[in-house]
Write a structure and sequence with these properties.
Elements: H1 3-16, E1 45-50, H2 57-73, E2 79-84, H3 89-101, E3 106-109, H4 118-126, E4 131-134, E5 144-148, H5 150-164, E6 174-179, H6 185-198, E7 203-209, H7 215-229, E8 236-239, H8 242-254, H9 270-278, E9 284-286, H10 289-305, H11 308-314, E10 317-319, E11 327-332, E12 335-337, H12 343-347, H13 354-357, H14 363-369
Length: 372
């Protein structure tokens, strides 16, 4: 099966089911899945390097779920040493070096700059510390990679935007593409996946690579696009994530647009889910960060303890980075989140409670959707 066909198959399956957090121990991989005696005990020191705080997911989901799972897997003997780079590649390099000097047993790394961190990955390798790339495929001799199928994410976004435009829009329909940071390899994959669905079906009138993924930069880019294209001539907006979608909406509203065009997103941020409820944002991509974080914790512990059967079960895919081929990987499925499936996704998975979404401001819109 080709990679595109495989992604399509995953997309179809994902649209038919909710990935419950109960499935976090996927493929039967659990603490007891490898009966061989571990090469190291439970007193592990696990380094976790996350990239920024602009996106609420890292502090709200990734870190706490990762930490909790490490505790469960090590009978609360394992310690997670956590650092957030706050969007600074230089700061992350220093944090990586500190992890090496602290002699952590394994590093789970979500790179700010996948290329710039390669030297740090090599230093960790030289020190005998395995590195698992988390969410973004870092360069250098990483031991494994876990993320969502990023091209599939872009395909889901692009396909959803086409559906929002009626399913068979005129190729002259103009859209704006608001891509992520140019130094983020994920952004390139999202963009490639989206273009595979959008190219030839609509006119991409303006396209931006948004510095640092910041909403204020997306807002400024969108204001520029409105000036060049004309606010009445924008049929839709591809936004690579929810934070930028918020900036895009602000720019449109500041320009006097009252009937917003369909706008995509990613991450299922609470504010975005509320915008979907009201119709300000058409869709987001729901990705189970708890599942990703917990499975990453399983991979890290299995790798350090020498539980090869468990590790291999968790990393059955293969990916290529710019520096290394055939990296063991796990690609976690995704779901298109729209008004139609809020209850079956983020609510069913306890990502959010109805009361989180349906505050007083959104009560009427929630009632129309039957959320209660």
């Amino acid at each position: 099966m080709s990679s595109r066909a495989r992604r399509t198959a995953i997309s179809v399956a994902a649209s038919l089911m909710t990935f419950s957090l109960a499935s976090c121990g996927m493929l039967g991989a659990s603490e007891s899945s490898d009966d061989a005696s571990p090469t190291k005990g439970n007193d592990l020191l696990v380094g976790l390097l996350l990239p920024e705080k602009e996106n609420t997911r890292y502090e709200q989901f990734d870190y706490p779920f990762f930490k909790k799972k490490v505790g469960e897997l090590t009978r609360d003997e394992g310690i997670v040493k956590y650092a957030n780079a706050e969007a600074s590649a230089t700061k992350q390099a220093d944090q990586m070096q500190q992890m090496i000097e602290d002699k952590v047993d394994v590093i789970v790394l979500d790179a700010v700059d996948a290329h710039a961190i390669a030297d740090g990955v090599q230093k960790a390798k030289d020190a005998g510390i395995p590195v698992i790339a988390y969410d973004r495929l870092a360069e250098g001799p990483i031991d494994a990679y876990i993320s969502f199928d990023n091209e599939l994410v872009g395909e889901v976004q692009g396909r959803s935007l086409i559906e929002a435009l009626g399913g068979d829009p005129e190729s002259s329909e103009k859209i704006v593409m608001m891509n992520g940071s140019s130094i983020d390899p994920n952004a390139k994959q999202f963009k490639a996946g989206a273009l595979s669905e959008l190219s030839g079906k609509v006119t991409i009138a303006q396209s931006f690579d948004t510095k640092d993924w910041k909403p204020e930069n997306a807002e400024a880019n969108m204001a520029e696009a409105i000036e060049k294209i004309g606010k009445k001539n924008i049929a839709g907006v591809y936004s690579a994530n929810d934070g930028m979608a918020g900036g895009i909406i602000k720019a449109l509203e500041d320009a006097g647009v009252t009937d917003l065009p369909p706008i995509t997103g990613q991450d299922a941020e609470l504010a975005a889910v509320q915008r979907i409820v009201t119709g300000e944002q058409y869709m987001s991509v729901y990705k189970s960060y708890p599942q990703e974080a917990e499975n990453a914790a399983e991979m890290a512990v299995a790798r350090v303890q020498g539980r090869d059967i468990q590790f291999d079960a968790l990393a059955r895919d293969k990916v290529d980075s710019p520096t290394h081929k055939g990296v063991p990987a796990q690609l976690v499925p995704v779901v298109a989140l729209t008004k139609a499936n809020i209850e079956e996704t983020v609510i069913a998975d306890d990502f959010y409670k109805v009361t989180d979404i349906c505050t007083a401001k959104y009560a009427d819109a929630c009632a129309e959707l039957g959320l209660k």
